[in-house]
Amino acid sequence: MSPAVQIDDLSFAHPGSDLPALERISLLVPTGESVALLGPSGAGKTTLLALLDGRLRGWQGRTSVLGASLDPDRPPLRARRPDTGFVFQEFALVERSTVLRNVLNGRLGRMSPLRALMGSSTSHDLETALAALADCGIADLAERRVDSLSGGQRQRVAIARCLAQEPRLILADEPVSSLDPARAAEVLTLLTGAARARGATALFSSHQPDLARRFAQRIVGISGGRIVFDVPTFDLSEEATANLYRDTARMPGVGLRAVS
Amino acid sequence: MRFRGIGGFAASTLVAGAILWSFMTTDVEFSRLLSAGPRIAEFLGRMFPPDPTVMREIMKGGAETLRIAILGSLGAVVLSAPLGILASETMVSPPLYRTVRTLLAFIRAIPLILVAMLMVGAVGLGPLPGIIAVAFHATGMLAKFYAEAIDGVSRAPIAALESAGAGPLARLRHAIWPQMAPVIARDTIFRFELNLRESLILGIVGAGGIGFYIQTYVRSFQYDKAASVTLAVIIMVVAIEAINVALRRRFA
Ligand SMILES: Nc1ncnc2c1ncn2[C@@H]1O[C@H](COP(=O)(O)OP(=O)(O)OP(=O)(O)O)[C@@H](O)[C@H]1O
Ligand SMILES: [Mg+2]
Question: What are the residue boundaries of the ABC transporter domain, all occurrences included (chain A) (predicted)?
Fold first, then answer.
């Protein structure tokens, strides 16, 4: 079986920026694995995940996701997009819509175009969305508007939307940054559990090394756009993590960037 | 606000100069001003008591003004939808939206009453020139509001839906429209209120509505009847405002 993610010698600079955000990255994620991305602010975690989601143009190197290679010049085929689910760092929810509507939005790519336009979900879509809500522990919020929710509640909605999409690869950008420690562990259990239950792959970024250790089989350290380590979780030393954050504190500019 | 330095001094001199110039060149006769008090009192006296027999004219004129405002607003909405898109930064290229915005600024700069006079000349007396004038005049503001509503939409949820595989129409329906609709509704109601207020006077230039009767009665010195119509106008404006405040709260 082809790996879920295969990256060879990937480099990328954001438009209008001279400094590369990713530099000569190579990474292999076998199907079914849960991998954590650790790295300081500005390391390139969001950039790497967005690139794998097919949202960035003009990179160099070879990248394939779920057996199909990405094209640096054009977005992936729409039919492939539902297979890759994304949990956005800033949630990216429709504030004025209800929680249920937002979670159903995760199913739009799997509906017929007419149904997607009319917003008439099938009973299967509705069941999937309600199950995702229940899994995330927010079934009682279904009818609430997102703009009335707390940060932690929004984060769960963002995760529920991704799960309702039934992706084969889950890309999660700091999916538990707004949750208290107990809730964070709970949600990561859910996210990696949901991935494992359906044989899906999960790649999540985090600023919490202890959580990464608990929930990932492998940990990738990234700093200044480069991969500095890529090891099975039980091989990761305290020292390596400490160095990851210490090194960049000395790099000009990077240490000054506020945690978003 | 306090003026500072050379610029401040120049600005104060300019303002003082402008005021002096206005006094000098305008023939302000203070004697006329002094006799104005009794005249106004007499005028008000003749307006009282308002003549209630003009109820029929009030209803007829008021209904016509309402129709002008409704159809004029409808015309403005129809014109503003495409122009709003063409004036939006997120939908079209800079040369196009800048051109359209300049055009809208010109339209806004032309007073409604002037447009109405031109339209009366073009299509004759009656509510039709009023409707066209309101539609044209209101588009200058409404299209700009619509463009701002489009540009105010947050991009992140749109990108999220695209990432989930939603097509452009589904994104419009589920990510763009929910963000825009309340803003558009609020702006349209606001513009409708202005249209109704402004079209009250259209009758003065023969462009239809209740203003026709105010003008007729004042010209023929029937101040008691003019007073009734004026009272009716005030009641209409207050009522519109009350309704709008209630409506706008719904779209908060
Ligand atoms: N749209 C953009 N345009 C230009 N530069 C960008 C853009 N987005 C990110 N960058 C830059 O790319 C680098 C990597 O940013 P990225 O958001 O991937 O970091 P991150 O690891 O996700 O950080 P954080 O932990 O704060 O979320 C940073 O130097 C950032 O300033
Ligand atoms: Mg990030």
Answer: 5-249
